[in-house]
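Q: Sequence in, structure out?
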Amino acid sequence: MAELAFIDKVAERAGVSEDTARLLTEGTLLTLAARISGGEAEDLAERVPDQLRPYLIKLTEPAVPFSYDEFMRRVAEYAGVDRPTAERGVAAVLSALHDTAGHKEFTDAMAQLPREFGQLVATG
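A: Exactly. Output:
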């Protein structure tokens, strides 16, 4: 999937403009990379469009533990959107990531996140 197709999918699923979808995608991938281990981030990076890979690259292996609320706060701040838009955006990005990365890689990464993410993805 090319970067534009990924961004378009996020825009459609989150109900936002392409520009906002791009910011939500970047913010979500950067925050996700910080929250999961370097190995999992690298596995996902290998499966996303080339232009999105840098957002999943980590320089350190350990995950940084922070809450679902902090994840959403970081994405909202990065994208310049409110919390509900950030949540819709994160759900859309994770859904597109699931489509792109495949079920095993996606579930391996999601296993490192707080349980609220499972509910977000199930509804997203």
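Residues 3-123 form a domain with the Globin-like fold (CATH 1.10.490.110).
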